[in-house]
Write a structure and sequence with these properties.
By secondary structure, the protein is mainly alpha-helical. It has twelve helices and two strands; from the N terminus they run H-H-H-H-H-E-E-H-H-H-H-H-H-H. The chain is 72% helix and 1% strand. A two-stranded antiparallel ribbon has the order 1-2.
């Protein structure tokens, strides 16, 4: 005899734990990208940089919900999503993040989650691709969908990072070329503390919100399926009959979980970003972090789930190319780019097959 399946409430709790596990992994996976430059320039020790990033990730995560709303209702048809869909998306993203972390490759947690969600949604809809929102307009007249919110930023943000990093570095060189190296290092060593904090804040304002969106989508799906109908009155905060603001408890739990993950560190990726790709001094770290933080902060304001990894990586490349084109170790860059290219399709397939497996086992 087959064992009885877990109750819908148990499945919801598993989804919630998986979402928080993804957020924790995102903390040490992507936050490593945010602090790699300040560690590699020796302005801060890894322990100090991780503490700085954890604090400003937390502050940034509490700063808004525009990206969370995009994830929860602007990429796939929320009415076609089940708890199995969401769990499959999370498992796909977690597997990919752990694999790339083990290999020391800075890949995008954002695109891993989005790819997993799209693949799982298509599988849930019995291969009906119309479940994906390619391009649309929401009730407030804002553009939503995979093209304006994911694909276009995925192409544009690395270019902006490279050009922005190179441009800012070029301008800085005009002003500092007569200063002694010791003076430059002293001044930009202090300024890099500011840019690293800004980078941590920007990362929190964008990346932490992706899991907020997924949990809100799970709450909506569970409410729609009647999972919470027999709960006591004190648990009514779980019910979301329609998409409104992201619940405060979701915002706080995601912010704190990401900060905890950041505190766990991510030395493998820090080493790739800060040491293997190009050798940096404080002025280069300041230019790369400032460029990336401005791009990510702007994306967060418009609800665009941009990849921290892509932006900071290409900013470092741009800064390194101005320093000396051969200073960038392009072999390492090529490995990173392959990880970028593969993230969406691989996670899409992982999410698709995870959902199919769940359906075979009786989960819906």
């Amino acid at each position: 005899d087959r064992r009885p399946l877990p109750s819908p409430m148990t499945i919801f709790l598993i989804v919630l734990l998986a979402a928080l596990a993804f957020e924790y992994i995102n903390g040490f996976h992507d936050a490593a990208n945010a602090i790699a430059t300040v560690v590699s320039t020796k302005v801060l020790t890894p322990r100090q940089a991780i503490a700085l990033a954890a604090v400003f990730n937390l502050i940034g995560a509490l700063a808004g919900t525009a990206v969370a709303k995009t994830i929860s209702g602007g990429l796939v048809d929320a009415h076609a999503v089940t708890m199995n869909t969401i769990l499959s998306a999370l498992l796909a993203a977690i597997v990919w993040n752990l694999l790339t972390w083990w290999l020391g490759l800075p890949s995008s947690s954002s695109h891993a989650l989005i790819g997993g969600l799209c693949g799982a949604a298509v599988a849930t809809a019995s291969d009906n691709w119309s479940v994906l929102i390619w391009s649309s307009v929401d009730k407030d007249g804002h553009s939503v969908g995979l093209w304006p919110k994911v694909v276009l930023p995925m192409l544009a943000s690395p270019v902006a990072g490279f050009i922005g990093g190179a441009g800012l570095m070029f301008v800085l060189l005009i002003f500092i070329h007569r200063l002694t190296p010791r003076t430059v290092n002293r001044v930009f060593g202090k300024l890099q503390l500011v840019s690293a904090a800004f980078m941590g804040y920007s990362h929190g304002s964008n990346d932490a919100q992706k899991t907020m969106g997924i949990i809100t989508l799970a709450l909506f799906t569970a409410t729609k399926a009647g999972v919470f109908k027999d709960l006591p009155a004190w648990a009514s905060f779980l019910q979301i009959p329609e998409f409104k603001d992201i619940p405060l408890w979701v915002i706080l739990s995601c912010a704190l979980t990401m900060a905890a993950g950041t505190a766990a560190g991510g030395w493998r990726i820090i080493r790739t970003m800060g040491h293997k790709m190009v050798k940096l001094q404080p002025v280069h770290g300041f230019a790369a972090e400032t460029t990336a933080a401005l791009i990510i902060h702007g994306a967060s304001a418009f609800g665009i789930p941009v990849s921290t990894t892509h932006v900071i990586s290409t900013s470092i490349m741009g800064v390194g190319a101005i320093k000396r084109f051969s200073a960038v170790k392009w072999g390492v860059v090529e490995r990173i780019i392959w990880a970028w290219v593969l993230t969406l399709p691989v996670c899409g397939m992982l999410g698709y097959f995870a959902q199919r497996l769940g359906s075979i086992l009786g989960y819906h």
